[in-house]
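Input protein
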Amino acid sequence: MPRLTSHSIRAFPPALVAAAALAATGCGSSANEPAAQHAPAATAAPAAAAQKFASRRYGFRVTLGKGWSGQDATQAWNGKRLEGIGSSDFANFTDRGGRALVAAAARVPKATRLAQWRAAMVRAAPDFCTESSTARRTTLGGEPALAWTAACSDGYKVNKIAALHGGRGYMVFLPSPTGTSAAGDRPMFESIRRSFRFTA
């Protein structure tokens, strides 16, 4: 069975959380507030220890924070339908706050364009999810990518990203319970996106 690995990547627990819902997909001081005079310097909280997770099956690695665990896909995804946490076709990562990162790749015809792949992934989403009609251009592992969001009636909101690499279409998404902060979801997703690297 393929296991998630990386160079100097820590070992994972043998199992993930039980299957959850399928996924399709700050504050600061006021500018008018005077600065405190003679205030002691604030002590920065220690950064969460970073962990590198990798998928042998789909040829990528990603950096996540403390408290995440993961399990690689045990069988190949056919690219036809998006599946969620616990699917054996997807690499699954979960954190203690209820968020998850789900990723997979499937072979695509040579002439496939990114917009076509994204459109296929919108069609592949479950019926109970509403996909945003537009997507923003970004990158994933140095490849052009399209990112968008979805809202699902099963209680999840989803940040999604699609890319093409090495003859495969990649789909990566972050389902978060609707009760979690939307302001926190996007920065987390962006941090994950920036850390993503193709290894094959």
User: Anything to note?
Assistant: Confidence is low (pLDDT under 50) at residues 1-47. The two ends are 19 Å apart (CA to CA).
